[in-house]
């Protein structure tokens, strides 16, 4: 019997044909509606491989159902939606999609900074709504980006790539990371700073840190109050690193000038969320890596990882390094 592969979102047939040629593949029919929990649990019982997205909770109960499950290929760099400990104990390989999305996510992150700084979305809507009746010197005036101080919280691959873009704007770049990056300091001219110093000194703060127990709710009201009143906060990491109520209160109180957000604590974010009512918030639907080229490469990497595991080979991007395959079935 052919191995069974379940895909939790609708994907182009051309990209998953390599799987269909070798395995029994079933795919959720929607790309914009999450697979219901009960269906995910039922599919996990049958699956040798799961092709998942970040919105799918692959917790202990799902993994426990996967008696034959050998691999979970997650269409993301992040994997905080997956119980790694349980997966390793059960001999289930967890794979992600790093590297292929670094430049694309950095592009979007810097674009989000520019949109928030120069009030681009607000200005575009101003024109479309017919409000532009005359030109005036300070109409929708934003803030300069060049020669300002940028603080990057989380200097991984994407953080370093954002820093490269910032050098083109002659920005003074600070960074905070769990470990110092001497090579990045030398090559990019970035300066290590404590978290406290970074938030106090930066004109723009970009959050790119992974979600961990240490970074959960990292940005509190107290942190926002330490920022410059002219500061703009950008989050392209994970929604849960920010206390959203604290961010809303800081914006309402004028403690910071604006925010650009690609991620939220609850996704999709409810339309009545207070942050969406503020004109100085640019909100995007978690599209950091969403270019046609990059999403195609991410799908192809997931397909390669699944095929490698099911064919008894090492996957290209293994997350749980302590994984060892178990005899199943």
Strand content: 5-15%
Mean pLDDT across the residues is 96
Distance between the termini: 12 Å
CATH topology of the largest domain, which one? Rossmann fold
CATH architecture of the largest domain: 3-Layer(aba) Sandwich
Task: Please give the CATH class of the largest domain.
Answer: Alpha Beta
Structural class: alpha/beta
Oligomer: single chain
Q: What is the makeup of the main sheet?
A: 7 strands, parallel
Helix count? 12
Name given to the CATH homologous superfamily of the largest domain: NAD(P)-binding Rossmann-like Domain
User: Helix proportion of residues, in percent?
Assistant: 25-40%
Give the radius of gyration. Answer: 22 Å
Please tell me the total number of domains: 2
What is the element string, with H for helices and E for strands?
EHEHEHEHEHHEHEHEHEHEHEEH
Number of strands: 12
Provide the low-confidence segments as ranges. Answer: none
Strand order of the largest sheet: 8-7-6-9-10-11-12
Choose one word for the global shape.
Answer: globular
């Amino acid at each position: 019997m052919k191995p069974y592969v379940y895909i939790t979102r609708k994907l182009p047939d051309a990209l998953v044909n390599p799987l269909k040629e070798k395995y029994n593949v079933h795919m959720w029919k929607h790309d914009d509606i999450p697979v219901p929990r009960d269906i995910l649990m039922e599919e996990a019982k049958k699956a040798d491989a799961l092709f998942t997205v970040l919105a799918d909770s692959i917790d202990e109960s799902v993994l426990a159902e996967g008696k034959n499950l050998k691999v979970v290929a997650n269409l993301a760099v992040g994997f905080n939606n997956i119980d790694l400990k349980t997966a390793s104990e059960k001999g289930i390989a967890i794979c992600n999609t790093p590297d292929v999305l670094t430049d694309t996510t950095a592009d979007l992150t810097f674009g989000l900074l520019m949109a928030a700084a120069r009030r681009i979305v607000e200005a575009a809507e101003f024109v479309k709504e017919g409000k532009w009746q005359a030109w005036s010197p300070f109409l929708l005036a934003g803030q300069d980006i060049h020669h300002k101080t940028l603080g990057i919280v989380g200097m991984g691959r994407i953080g370093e790539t954002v820093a490269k873009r910032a050098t083109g704007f002659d920005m003074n770049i600070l960074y905070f990371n769990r470990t110092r990056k001497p090579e990045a300091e030398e090559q990019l001219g970035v300066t290590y700073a404590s978290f406290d110093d970074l938030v106090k000194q930066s004109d723009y703060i970009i959050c790119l840190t992974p979600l961990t127990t240490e970074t959960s709710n990292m940005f509190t009201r107290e942190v926002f109050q330490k920022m410059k009143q002219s500061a703009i906060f950008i989050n392209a990491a994970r929604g849960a690193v920010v206390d959203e109520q604290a961010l809303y209160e800081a914006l309402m109180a004028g403690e910071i000038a604006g925010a650009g957000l690609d991620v939220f604590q609850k996704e999709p974010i409810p339309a009545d969320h207070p942050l969406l009512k503020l004109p100085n918030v640019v909100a995007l639907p978690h599209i950091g890596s969403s270019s046609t080229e990059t999403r195609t490469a991410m799908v192809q990497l997931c397909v390669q990882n699944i095929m490698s595991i099911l064919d008894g080979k090492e996957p290209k991007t293994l997350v749980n390094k302590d994984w060892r395959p178990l005899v199943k079935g």
